Amino acid sequence: MTATTTGTVTGPTAATAPALEVRDLHITYPPRAGRGPARAVDGVDLELGRGEILALIGESGCGKSTLARALTGLVKPTSGQVLCDGEPLRYTSAALKAHRRKVQFVLQDPGGALNPRQNVFDAVAEGPRLHRMRDGLEQRVHTALSKAGLRPPEQFLSRFPHEMSGGQQQRVVIAGALALEPSVIVADEPVASLDASVRGEILKLVLDLRRDLGLSSLVVSHDLGLAWNIADRVAVMYLGRIVEVGTVEEVLLAPRHPYTKALLSVVSAEGARGGRPQLLQGEPPDPTAVPEGCRFHPRCPLWAGLDAADRAEAGCDRRTLPVLPAQAPAGGQAACHLASVS
Q: Which of 56, 173, 221, 249 is the most buried (most CB within 10 A)?
């Protein structure tokens, strides 16, 4: 960072800045039905590098989808910043439109994302038409369909969603995103609604798009197997915060946070051989009642195994943990008072 002659601070150039970044992001929904405000995203720093595939992992309700929607401009933060190519996102209509051309959102359910009355051509052409990209529209649609793996595209142009498989529908949704030539794809559970037989094909497509187009991708999922197969880095989210981040090898082969370990125990090779997964105790996360101290401690098996003296020394129930940095140092990082002894 350097200072200009006017005293303002300038950040990295677009060429060196992360493709997408959030700084101290908070998203709080107002109270309702007698409950307090919901801290859906509660202090997140995170970077998506150029050409990187980052997997955002966690249970349902932990804030993953809200964070993904904020990255695409669909949710305005309560505080903090979203930056694209080093430039803060502004929330005017024109700025949001320009941002969404560069950062495209791929929804979980392709059947719900596609208009049943639109054929494939119109579905893929909808984005370019909204952005007034009408020159060469037919070729643009053909190219997008080919990149999404629907070849030859002529065979699909006149089809309607009900005439295609779930995997083909998801490829149409991805083609609709590619038609705008984005630099970033944010995919929310992109294979969750698909049969196991086609999940691998869609994940391979994400890898192919990175290889062929240099696309950066943030993939939201609860599936650790997905992260292992396609991600460069993994960020684990719990109750509005990133609690562990590192390379896929650091997080999945040598996890430091007890929450990550519990998630992994369910799908580990030992579990597959009949070992007992580590079950989390207590209720699922509630963003309207974030605990004091470490927000995971009420469900933490390490905390549960401590005696009173060790609990007092650890302070998990009273000492607040800092927000993890956007880029973890080598070896990864975990937001846990007990990570050094776990």
A: 56
Query: Model-level pTM?
Result: 0.90
Judge whether 244 lies within some domain.
no
Asked if 82 and 102 touch (Cβ cutoff 8 Å), the reply is no
For the record, the structure tokens of 167 come out as 């995997």
Q: Which amino acid, residue 67?
A: L
Cα–Cα distance for residue pair 335/328, rounded to 1 Å:
11
23, 92 Cβ separation under 8 angstroms: no
Q: Are 294 and 204 in contact (CB under 8 A)?
A: no
Residue 340 pLDDT grade (very low, low, confident, very high; cuts 50, 70, 90): low
CA distance 189 to 106: 9
Q: Kindly state whether residues 226 and 261 are assigned to the same domain.
A: no
| pLDDT value of position 1 | 38
CA distances from 220 to 226, 312, 314 (A): 10, 36, 32
- Domain range for 308 is 256-342
